Amino acid sequence: MKVSPALRIRTVSAALALVAGAGLLACQPATPPANAATADDLSDSARTYAWSEGIVGADDSIVAPRDPDHPMYEDFADLEVTVSQTEDVRAQSVQVTWSGGVPTVITSGGNQPAAGYLQLMQCWGDENAGPDPETCVWGADGLPGTASMPGDTGLRSLATAPADPLLDEDTLAGYLDPTINRHRVPFLAASADEPVWDPVSYYDRWTTNEFRLGMTRADGTGERHFTLQDGTEASHLGCGRTLEDGEVRDCWLVVVPRGTHEVDGFAVTDDPTGTSMLRTSPLSPTNWAQRIQVRLDFAPIGLFCPIEAAQRPTIGSDFMGAAMYSWQRALCADDGAVYGFTPAGDSTARETVAGGLPGNPGLGFTSAPVTESDGPAPVVHAPVAISGLAIGFNLVAPDGERIDELRLTPLLVAKLLTQTYWRDLPGLPAPPPAGQPDERPEWIRANPETVLDDPGFQQLNPDVDPGVFRLHASNLLKVPVEPSDAVRDLWRWIFHDEEAAAWLRGEPDENGIRVNPVLGEVLTGHLEAGTAPDFVPRDVEYCFEVLSEEDESARRPRYCSLDLLPYTNGFEDGARRNSIFETNFWAYDPNAVPPSGQGRGWYSRPEPRPSGAALTITDSVSAAQYGIGTAALLNAAGEFVAPTEAGIAAGVEAMLPGDEIESVLQVDPEAADPAAYPLPAVTYAAVRVEQEDEALADYSTFLEHAAGAGQTPGWSPGELPEGYLPLPEYMREQTLAVAAQLVQEDPVEKPPGLTPGGRGEDGEDPPPGGDASGGPGSDPAGNGAPGSGDAPDPASLSPAGDDPTGGTAPPAPGGGTENPAPPSGDDDVLVAQSTPGEPVGPMQYALLVVLIVGLAGALAGPALLRLGPRAPAG
C-alpha cells in the first residue's frame, strides 16, 4: 500500500532544518500575511472615489480635473469605485466594487467584449501625482483571455488606428520598439534605472496580477477581488520595501474604465452591425487620462525590527501566520525582542519545543498538547488564538458573477480528498461513448468527472452549474503538504459521519459512486483503529506513462498524482492560489521544451485564469485575507454552518476538555449544538520552561501581548487580523497566568488548579446564571460564549518523567489520535500529566536525516515556504 511520501520527507526536513539552523530561523521576522476586507465588513481605510471629481493624488488633492466636454465624460459621469482597504495592505486581495458604470456590451458574435468594462492594474510610483503607464503591471503575454480581448485592450501596444489625439508624431516615435517595429509602452521596474520593452523578465502570465475584464451588470454595478502583490512577490513593484530615506514604498491600484467611446471619440455602440468594439490599450494617453487611481499604504516587508534585538524564535501552526506578523511589529517597536515565526506542523512544533536542544525555538504553536513522547523538556500551554479550519472556495462565472454560498457534507469532502472523481487520476480517459467497452478500473466507471457533477453536490448547490464552472476541474481541492492537528480534526469530522465512514469502508453511495480503493484501504485502517491521520494521502500507485509516437521504446516522463494534485505550502498559499484560480498542477505540453533542451514534449504549468471553480483547505484568516468564500459544513446536529464569528464561537463553546491535558481543549465532532461550526481551532503557545531567564521573560512579554492588546480586532500593528476571534476572558486569564508563571523563580512549580471556563467543578456545563467569563468575541466584561466558570489551569504543565495519572499515549506524528472520550468528570484539572512513549513514525529517523539534510534545511527550510513566485530582477 502506497501513499505519498512527499509530506513525510518534507516534515522531517522541516523539523531538522530547525535543529541544524535554528539560529538562522530565529533571526527571521514573521512573514507577512494580511487581512482583506469584504463587502460586508469594509476596513476603516475603505475609500470610495467618484470619477467626476477628477484624478486624486497621494495627498487627496485633485491632480487632474475632468473635462465635461470630453466625449467620454458622459460614459463615466456617474461612476463610483470603492476599494475595501487602502491602508496597511500586504500580499492579499481587496474587493473592488463599482456603480454607475456603462453596462458591458458583447459583440453580436457573443464572444468578445465590445464596450463597458473596467480594467485593473497595480503600479508603483512615488510622486504625489500618481503612477505613469510605464510603472504599471499590464500586458503579460499569453494571459488567458487575450484572444477574446479585441485589439490592444489587453496589451501595452499603442494603436495607430484609431489614432490617439494625445499622441503626436514625436511622442509616438518615442514609443517605437525597434525589436518588433511596433509602438508600445515600455515597463520601468522600481528596482531599475532604465525601462524595458518586453516586461517578461519581470512578470509573465503566471505572475501578473492584472485584471483585463471587469464586467458591468445592466444596472451599472460590478465587483472584483483584486490580488495585491508586495515586494516579496513582485520585486519589480517593490511595494512595502524600505527606501533609502527610511520610508516604506507605497503603491497604487489603477482602475481604467472603458465606456462606449474610443480615443478618437467614436462610439462603438453606434455601429448598426454590432461588430465594432474598443481596440485601444488602457495605457494609451486618452484612456489613461480617465483612470481612477487609489493610493495603497503598504505594510513594511523584510527586516523591520532592530537587527540588534534579542531573537526569540517560534515555530508551529499555520493558524498563527497573520497574528504573528501583526503582533511582531508592535512587540519590537520599543526595543522588544524579535519573535521569528517558522510555520510547521503541530507535531514538529511539539517535538522541537519539548526536545530541548540548544538553539531550538522555545515556543511552539499547536492545537494539541505536548506530551512525554514529544520530548523530555517540561512545557506549559497557553491559548493565544481562535480561528477555524475552512474549505475555501472561489466560484466565478465567465461573466464575473460569483457564487457566495457553498454547502458540503462529510461525504462530499471525503470524495474530494480521496481521488474518487475520475478527473483526479492522472491520465485517466473520459468514459467511452455509449455502447463501447469501458476499459477503466471497474470501481471508477460510475463515478462522475468532478465533484461539480456529483448528484449529491448538485442537490445541495443547485446554483453551481457544472457547464459554467468547468474550468479548473482537475485539482479542484488543494490541500496543504504539512501534517497538522487541524487536518486530523477534519478527518475526525468525516469519520464520525456514519454515511461517510461507510463509504470509506467500500460501500457505494446512493448514486453508485465508490471510493478510490487505494486510499479507502488506508483510511479504513484508521477507522478500524479509532485514529485519524494528520495529513491528506495521495494515491501514488497510479501514474500515467505513454509511449512516444516516434519511438515506442521511449517513454514520456511519468505523470503521477503529485504532478496532477500537488500540495500547497500551507493555508495562506492555498488561499492565494484559489483567489487567482492557480491550480499549481503540471500538464503534459507537446510543445514544451524539456530541461535537456532537446526535442519537444514536457510538462508545463497552466496559467491562472480570471474565472472558474476552485476549492482549498485553508483557515478563516487566510480566506479573509484573499477574499475567497468559505463553505458551510454539515455538523453533527444536521445543520450547515459556515466559519463565521458566531459559528466558530459556538464551535469553541462545544469543545471538550483534552484527553492528555484537560485545559487544552479538543474539537468535539459530535457536538450537539446546531449553531456550532464543526472545525473551530484554538491555538496554544507551548513554552519550554527550562530556558534562560531572559528568554522566559521575553516569551512572557509575548504572552502578555497575545492575551491583551493582541486580542483587539483591527488593522493596525499589534492588533488581531480579520478571521480571528478574540479570546474569551477565561482564556486570557489562563494565558496571563502562564505569562506570570514564566518569570517566577521556579516556573515548573505547579500553580493552583483551576477548572476549564464554561464548565463547572465537576466538568459539566454550569447552571444558568453562573459566573460569566465570556466567549470568543466577547468583551472584557465576559459577555458572550462560552459561558462561565473559573479559568482553566493556567499552566497546563506537561513535564516529562513519571506519569501519575496513567494517561494514554498520544499519536505518533502523522499517525492519528484516539477518538476523544467525554470528560471524566474528575474534580481537579490534571496539571502534570505525561504519557509513556511510543514509536513516532518517520520522525524516529530524525538523527539519520539530519546528517543528510540538516544544512540544506537550515538554508531553505520552512521559513521560505511562503515565498511566492519571484520574477527575476531586471
Key traits:
disordered N terminus; alpha+beta; disordered C terminus; 874 residues; single chain; 18 helices; 8-stranded mixed beta sheet; globular; 5-stranded mixed beta sheet
Summarize the structure.
This protein is of the alpha+beta class and 874 residues long. The radius of gyration is 28 Å and the shape is globular. Residues 1-39 and 749-874 have low confidence and may be disordered.
Residue ranges: pLDDT <50 for 5 or more in a row? Answer: 1-39, 749-874
Radius of gyration: 28 Å
The count of strands amounts to: 30
Q: Which percent bin holds the helix content?
A: 10-25%
Continuous helix count: 18
The pLDDT mean sits at: 80
Characterize the main sheet.
8 strands, mixed
What structural class results from the helix and strand content? alpha+beta
Judging from the principal axes of the Cα atoms, what is the shape? globular
Measured by DSSP, the beta-strand proportion falls in 15-25%
User: What is the straight-line distance between the termini?
Assistant: 48 Å
Keywords: Membrane, Signal, Transmembrane, Transmembrane helix
Organism: Jiangella anatolica
Protein name: PBP domain-containing protein
